[in-house]
UniProtKB/TrEMBL annotation:
Species name: Neophocaena asiaeorientalis asiaeorientalis
Pfam families: Nop (PF01798), NOP5NT (PF08156)
Single GO MF descriptor: snoRNA binding
Name of the protein: Nucleolar protein 58
Signal peptide: none
């Protein structure tokens, strides 16, 4: 039996010397513990070496797709057909192709897998003429080439440059803002009116660099930088300026800062053009969908284009708003609808009511574009243009839906009424300032006197009523006291009468003895009467 063994260096065909030992699959690994034992089981019959890594990559890609390479076909025709022995193959699909095209009997079983594992463990001793260093180098190069091929990854598409470029662009913007703010504030002490007349920062610095001191504006020509009206306004403001006088050394330092601002701004424009070119080369569809800056920021936030391609559409939608997302989850509020994708032109031109819906749709289409750019072989931007056209059509339908009439057919557009500005001038109402009753100014003195008299009479009547009520209360209290005293006297008299009656009853009882028997018998009679009543009932 022959064995086909593929290595990163070339094809190897082994001859099995002792097939009886192959029957025990569980103990086969013991026969490959040392190179000496392995040489007793298998022997190298032929070795076909690859010339370079490209040839090895072509051979292995063919094997992975279940195809036979030309080099392998020659080896099999030359050696295996002449031997007229079955061929052991590691891949069942490859064995089927060899049997179909070359009419060779192929074997694939667990026994063959164990045999391949044993040969791989002692490969250095079984294949002479191949150094371990060469084998390791070929293996590493083939692994890198094969992984690039499987991921459809090109070495020219290096997204690291985009990450660095967009980071540098953001840093340059921050530094430019700081430098320009410092320049305007510094030169504002000398000529403060110029900052209000010239709003563009780059033009401001170029004017300073060309003129310098405020006194030179009268003789200087600024027609290359400014229009005629602005130039005349600057010269008029320089003559009547309120700024302080500064020395030549101060002007030199300000001019040096202006040159730095101009150089940095020129480099920024150059860097932006470079970023545009790189984005169109690496991710053209993403550039069409969201623009160069937003696409580059998404790639930089994810780390690479491949990492960004692994994200879901919902993740890409809120990428850059992680703090707001976790704050919303913690406080159980609404989660954010967009992150970095908010700065895309499609989201910016929509109304606030539809921004969330458009950002969700844009994120879904952007993810498709990212995966197409990362794994696709085609480098055209046709898919991005098509998806952007669909999104723009969807946006138009959303915007038009709010304008259409609700009643009727719903197809006719509502007529927009002419806008008329109605300004309502409201005056201040001082009545709410005080809670006191207000009187009109045109009141007669007699009415005021009469009202005062009425108020005095009412006050006197109230005093009289209060006195009468107090007297009545005193009389009532006195009557209550008299009644209580009379009740006490009557109760004392009744007690005295009861005591006298008790004394009279006790005296005859003590004198006559037989009365005790009658007194004792009286309760017995009462009991008999009660019994009779119970029997009658």
């Amino acid at each position: 039996m022959l064995v086909l063994f593929e290595t990163s260096v070339g094809y190897a065909i082994f001859k099995v010397l002792n097939e009886k030992k192959l029957q025990e699959v569980d103990s086969l690994w013991k026969e490959f513990e040392t190179p000496e034992k392995a040489n007793k089981i298998v022997k190298l019959k032929h070795f076909e070496k690859f010339q370079d890594t490209a040839e090895a990559l072509a051979a292995f890609t063919a094997l992975m797709e279940g195809k036979i390479n030309k080099q392998l076909k020659k080896v099999l025709k030359k050696i295996v057909k002449e031997a007229h022995e079955p061929l052991a193959v590691a891949d069942a699909k490859l064995g089927g192709v060899i049997k179909e095209k070359l009419n060779l009997s192929c074997i694939h079983s667990p026994l063959v897998n164990e045999l391949m594992r044993g040969i791989r463990s002692q490969m250095d001793g079984l294949i002479p003429g191949v150094e371990p260093r060469e084998m390791a180098a070929m293996c590493l190069g083939l692994a890198h080439s094969l992984s690039r091929y499987r991921l459809k990854f090109s070495a020219d598409k290096v997204d690291t440059m985009i990450v660095q470029a967009i980071s540098l662009l953001d840093d340059l913007d921050k530094e430019l803002n700081n430098y320009i703010m410092r320049c305007r504030e510094w030169y504002g002490w000398h000529f403060p009116e110029l900052g209000k007349i010239i709003s563009d920062n780059l033009t401001y610095c170029k004017c300073l660099q060309k003129v310098g001191d405020r006194k030179n504006y009268a003789s200087a020509t600024l027609s290359e930088l400014l229009p005629e009206e602005v130039e005349a306004e600057v010269k008029a403001a320089a003559e009547i300026s309120m700024g302080t006088e500064v020395s030549e050394e101060d002007i030199c330092n300000i001019l040096h800062l202006c040159t730095q601002v101009i150089e940095i701004s020129e480099y920024r424009t150059q860097l932006y053009e470079y970023l545009q070119n790189r984005m169109m080369a690496i991710a053209p569809n993403v550039t069409v969908m969201v623009g160069e800056l937003v696409g580059a920021r998404l790639i930089a936030h994810a780390g690479s284009l491949l990492n960004l391609a692994k994200h879901a559409a919902s993740t890409v939608q809120i990428l850059g708003a992680e703090k707001a997302l976790f704050r919303a989850l913690k406080s159980r509020r609404d989660t954010p609808k967009y992150g970095l994708i908010y700065h895309a032109s499609l989201v910016g031109q929509t109304s606030p009511k539809h921004k969330g819906k458009i950002s969700r749709m844009l994120a879904a289409k952007t993810v498709l574009a990212i995966r197409y750019d990362a794994f696709g072989e085609d480098s055209s931007s046709a898919m991005g243009v098509e998806n952007r056209a669909k999104l723009e059509a969807r946006l138009r339908t959303l915007e038009d839906r709010g304008i259409r009439k609700i009643s009727g057919t719903g197809k006719a557009l509502a007529k927009a009424e002419k806008y008329e500005h109605k300004s309502e001038v409201k005056t201040y109402d001082p009545s709410g300032d005080s809670t006191l009753p207000t009187y009109s100014k045109k009141r007669k003195i007699e009415q005021v006197d009469k009202e005062d008299e009425v108020v005095e009479k009412k006050a006197k009547k109230a005093k009289v009523k209060i006195k009468v009520e107090e007297e009545e209360e005193v009389v009532e209290v006195e009557e209550d006291v008299v009644e209580v005293v009379e009740e006490q006297e009557t109760s004392v008299k009744k007690k005295k009468k009861k005591d006298k009656k008790k004394h009279i009853k006790e005296e005859p009882l003590s004198e006559e003895e037989p009365c005790t028997s009658t007194a004792i018998a009286s309760p017995e009679k009462k009991k008999k009467k009660k019994k009779k009543r119970v029997n009658e009932d």
